[in-house]
Specification:
Number of strands: 0
Radius of gyration: 26 Å
Distance between the termini: 39 Å
Structural class: mainly alpha
Order of helices and strands: HHHHHHHH
């Protein structure tokens, strides 16, 4: 019932659009219909390059299609390491401030998953951005900071395992320092990614 109630307005909207298009086509003169059978709407840009649009729809080789498809997965995959690194950092902070070591029991798995998923996200990001050479400043910072986050994630994983297997104050401080640096880099790079996706002013109040 919920699906039907949600889809009914959309279906009605589509029917309305079809009826409106039919009325416009019937009212237009015979020469207004292009050779390819598309009806030019009144608010359509006059300088629209239909040749370029048709060229964009041309078939592409399979390797190129796979390359672009992998790159399109980057915005979705990047949310996993962002969330996991930040959750691990918050749990470690809570364990230190509240003096409850039990809060850190799950961070061992979280750090491992964050490190692995960050490698996947960085690889997909390289597919999305291509090879370096034509990057502007924002793209360059985002590319290399993201790559550094993957390396920092692996170091965090190593430091966590090293500390768990051989507890010590020095190993704990190394792990906490690496995790803090990684979480800060994740937040900065997330801001850069938002600028690239939504524009430089997307966080303006």
């Amino acid at each position: 019932m919920l699906a039907l109630s949600v889809s009914a307005p959309a279906i009605a909207h589509e029917d309305h659009d079809k009826q409106a298009a039919a009325r416009v086509q019937a009212a237009a003169p015979a020469g207004a219909v292009p050779e390819w059978g598309m009806m030019a709407m009144p608010d359509m840009a006059q300088d629209m390059d239909h040749g370029a649009m048709m060229a964009d729809e041309s078939p592409r080789p399979m390797p190129q299609r796979l390359y672009r498809w992998f790159g399109a997965m980057h915005p979705a995959a990047v949310h996993f390491p962002i969330a996991l690194f930040l959750v691990a950092a918050l749990l470690e902070i809570a364990a230190l401030t509240l003096r409850r070591p039990v809060l850190t029991q799950g961070t061992r798995v979280i750090i491992a998953l964050a490190a692995i998923s960050s490698i996947v996200a960085v690889a997909l990001g390289w597919f999305a951005m291509g090879l370096p050479g034509k990057d502007d400043a924002t793209h360059a910072y985002h590319r290399w900071l993201g790559t550094s986050i993957a390396l920092l994630g692996l170091l965090c994983w190593w430091a966590k395992e090293h500390w768990v297997r051989r507890p010590g104050r020095g190993r704990e401080m190394i792990y906490i320092g690496l995790l803090t640096l990684t979480a800060a880099a994740v937040m900065v790079n997330g801001l850069l990614g938002g600028m690239l996706t939504h524009g430089m002013r997307h966080l303006m109040f």
